[in-house]
Amino acid sequence: EAVLVEDGGDSVQAGGSLTVSCLGSWGRYERYSMAWFRQTPGGEREGVAAIESSGKTTYADAVKGRFSVSQNSDQNTLYLQMDSLKPEDTGMYYCAADWGGVGRPLVASEYVYWGQGTQVTVSS
Q1: Structure confidence at residue 21 (pLDDT)
Q2: Which residue in 1, 4, 3 sits closest to 95, CA to CA?
């Protein structure tokens, strides 16, 4: 069992920066793969960035070079540093996790545990 809690969502101007975080509470000691997804009203949940249990990172093409995903040393907090934000980055950002490796790190169905989300709004 795992509980994920996101924080840090805000409203920012286009071109600005924002960091969101996700604190994971694990019921057992395992190495987890974690990821960020985002979703707009009426839209699908799309993968943004992921860190697999091996440490490998993956980014969606739309955010490469602008977003950076990282974890703290205890691997229980996931961060997403977002720079050069665009209005199309607006959405509810969700943290996801699953134990061990995942085959498709930016696919929502690969993850069992989800947070409640934190809203990011980018205005032009």
Answers
A1: 97
A2: 4
Element (H, E) at 13: strand 11-13
pLDDT band at 73 (very low <50, low <70, confident <90, very high): confident
pLDDT for residue 72:
85
| Residues in CB range of 112: below 8 A, 6 or more apart | 2, 97, 98
Q: What is the pLDDT of residue 29?
A: 65
Which residues in 90-112 are b (16+ Cβ under 10 Å) and which e? bbbbbbbbbbeebeebbebebbe
Close Cβ partners of 25 (under 8 Å, ≥ 6 residues apart) = 2, 3, 4, 5, 76
Helix, strand or coil for residue 72?
A: coil
Listed residue (17, 13, 59) closest to 38, CA to CA: 59
40 in Cβ contact with 22 (< 8 Å): no
- What is the spatial distance between Cα 26 and Cα 41, in angstroms, rounded to a whole number? 30
Question: Where do we find the tokens 């699908």?
Answer: 44
Q: What is the DSSP letter of 105?
A: T
